[in-house]
Design brief:
The structure is a single chain. The chain has about 240 residues and is of the alpha/beta class. It has two domains: about 60 residues; about 130 residues. It has three helices and eight strands. A five-stranded mixed β-barrel has the order 2-4-5-8-6. A hairpin with a 5-residue loop joins strand 4 and strand 5.
Length: about 240
């Protein structure tokens, strides 16, 4: 049996890369399990009866909880969330302050997606003037949105922004408001809805885990292959030089 002699450089490369590849695969498996648990929790909340707005500030975890609203939209202070793609078409999401009459609380309600194919023409939308009874779900941003440049503060309404900060909006308007966005359910004030519950589902994390583990296996196989091959070439060269002598 030929001895296995891969050499120092390949050995150091494998020792440096293999633990990282395995760790990345395990991390993706963990993320997939977290997403499954998160989706199961959100699915339970979707079938629960809506909360009253007065109950929001008493809960530590409001993510995806359904809320019943009754009040009016503020048509003068609309926000357009830019760079929202649907079916390959550019558009925006329309968010407006909503004053809930029962609690007196201001809420930032996302009414859905609107197409905006021509930037030279303002986005067209209507705001109901009458009081409405609506159902919505609390959306808690999982992290800070990446921005190349911060959004300008102030300016004409509606504001065109790339990220939503409800607390900053309430401070700008001088109002006491709820700290998170609410996303409308289908109803008289909604436009196109249909947001993904999570940006990346568990199946994608599983796919990435398979890729990392496959790279780890490929690295080990290459290490074994070149270790045997290098030893074979050395043995062949040694026999050739001995024969000439």
């Amino acid at each position: 049996m030929r001895p296995f002699r891969p050499g120092w450089v390949p050995t150091l490369v494998v020792l440096a890369l293999l633990p990282g590849l395995i760790a990345l695969g395990c991390w993706q498996l963990g993320r997939a399990e977290e997403k499954r648990a998160l989706l199961a929790s959100y699915a339970e909340r979707r079938i629960e009866a809506p909360l009253a707005t007065s109950q929001l500030n008493g809960n530590e975890d409001n993510a995806m909880r359904r809320v019943h609203l009754y009040g009016r939209f503020d048509a003068e202070h609309s926000v357009l969330l830019d760079n929202r793609m649907r079916d390959g078409q550019a558009g925006v999401e329309l968010l407006q302050p909503f004053h809930d009459q029962a609690s007196g609380l201001w809420l930032l309600v996302n009414r859905g997606w609107l197409p905006w194919p021509d930037r030279r023409v303002p986005v067209h939308f209507d705001t109901p003037a009458q009081a409405l009874a609506l159902d919505a779900s609390v959306y808690v941003e999982p992290g800070n949105t990446f921005q190349l440049h911060p959004d300008p503060v102030g300016g004409q309404w509606p504001h065109l922004l790339t990220a939503i900060d409800a607390a900053q909006l309430w401070a700008q308007l001088g109002r006491e408001g709820f700290a998170h966005e609410l996303r409308l359910e289908p109803g008289p004030a909604s436009y196109r809805l249909g947001w993904p519950i999570v940006a990346m589902g568990p199946e994608k994390h599983m796919g990435y885990a398979v890729q990392w583990f496959a790279l780890a296996i490929a690295l080990v196989l290459l290490y074994l292959y070149f270790g045997w091959r290098q030893n074979k070439e050395k043995s062949h060269g040694h026999r050739h030089s001995t024969g000439r002598a």
